[in-house]
Amino acid sequence: MIISERLKTCLATATHMVAFTGAGISAESGVPTFRGADGIWNKMRPEELASMDGFLRNPDLVWEWYAHRKRIIAEVQPNAGHVALARMERCVPDFIVITQNIDNLHRRAGSTKVHELHGNIERNYCIACGRRYSNEEVLKAVGVPRCAACNGKIRPDVVWFGEMLPEDEWEASVRATESASLFFSIGTSAVVYPAASLPVTAKARGAYLVEINPEPTPLTERADEFLQGSAGTILPLLYDILHDARKVSA
Ligand code: BJW
Ligand code: ZN
What is the C-alpha separation between 69 and 91, in angstroms, rounded? Predict the structure, then answer.
């Protein structure tokens, strides 16, 4: 893997960094991605499973899919890619993770400054009255769980197609993006908006844009550097460079 001198300098000196992550960073933990050869959506249609219309049309199917994913995610562990980002946070004054993932693996790896753009699969709420439920409460149900207060259907607290992103998480992400001097786009196909606009904004605001992915994406030709390969291999290498450079200069 060739790391440019420019990137080495950024790793050694940048004070504001963002790691923008997608499903690919959790692939090596055993969480399936959405798109690509082994992606979930080769088998299922996104509008059927990840939209309010789909949920209202076929709540049992959608709930079954989420219950299945909740169980997978509860059993997996953060991998070397998540851990490397958590370690970087401890070396850099302002290191922010912006994730499209709902699996909570960044926090479980030790990252503390995490903005979740598409929600969190560990939370749930009633679509009628908004009452919140833990996974422990909802996974006991047979079929779609119902609200104890109003009998409404309970859904996972994730962002489906056609829904707004959580405003505070989005605004904090835009602010971090605009002030970043080094911005990583890691393990995302970069096709789902508005999240996919963030790397482009970062570059327009002067950040050095580095993409990490085994496959090229629509972002690749706009990136300053494309590190082709898996996050679990490349991020620990970058952490070593960052850590060694800062140790020497400290
Ligand atoms: C590895 C690896 C390894 C593998 N290491 N890498 C502008 C233009 C066009 C459309 C729109 C637009 N603005 C809005 C839209 C509509 C829509 C959209 O973007 N559609 C496009 C798909 C066409 N966006 C929305 O609806 C959003 N809301 C919105 O815009 O609100 C405003 C509004 C309101 C009302 C009306 C209209 C607008 C909401 C989007 C919500 C997305 N939700 C999901 C599901 C979340 C819940 C769940 O998980 O169940 O979020 S969809 C799914 O895609 C999930 C992901 O977070 C998201 C992104 O996927 P990601 O992370 O990039 O994963 P993959 O699988 O695509 O890619 C994995 C990558 O990893 C690949 O590249 C691999 O190569 C790589 N990889 N192994 C590193 N080891
Ligand atoms: Zn309710």
Answer: 33
Supply the angle between the helices 231-249 and 80-91 in degrees, to the nearest 10. Answer: 20
Q: Residue 47 has what pLDDT?
A: 76
**CA-to-CA distance for 161 and 172, rounded, in angstroms?**
21
Give the whole-angstrom CA distance, residue 176 versus residue 156.
27
Residues 6+ apart with CB under 8 A from 14: 92, 181, 182, 208
Starting from the edge strand earliest in sequence, which strands make up the sheet with 225-228, in order?
A: 114-116, 94-99, 16-21, 182-186, 208-213, 225-228
CATH number, domain of 54, equals: 3.30.1600.10
Ligand sitting nearest the alpha carbon of 151: 2
pLDDT tens-digit profile of 50-81? 999 999 999 999 999 999 999 999 999 999 99
* 250 or 38: which leads in pLDDT: 38
Token code pair at residue 199: 């790397």
Is 60 found in the same domain as 23?
no
Note down the domain range covering 52. Answer: 37-75+121-158
- 104, 154: one domain: no
Domain containing residue 107: CATH number: 3.40.50.1220
Burial 178-207, CB ≥16 within 10 A → b, else e: bbbbbbbbbbbbbebeebbebbbbbbeeeb
Distance 138 CA to ligand 2 centre (A): 13
Expressed in angstroms and rounded, the spacing between residue 240 Cα and the centre of ligand 1 is 30
Helices and strands in the chain, H and E counts? 11, 9
Q: Is the pLDDT of residue 39 over 90?
A: no
Q: Which amino acid is at 213?
A: N
16 tagged catalytic? no
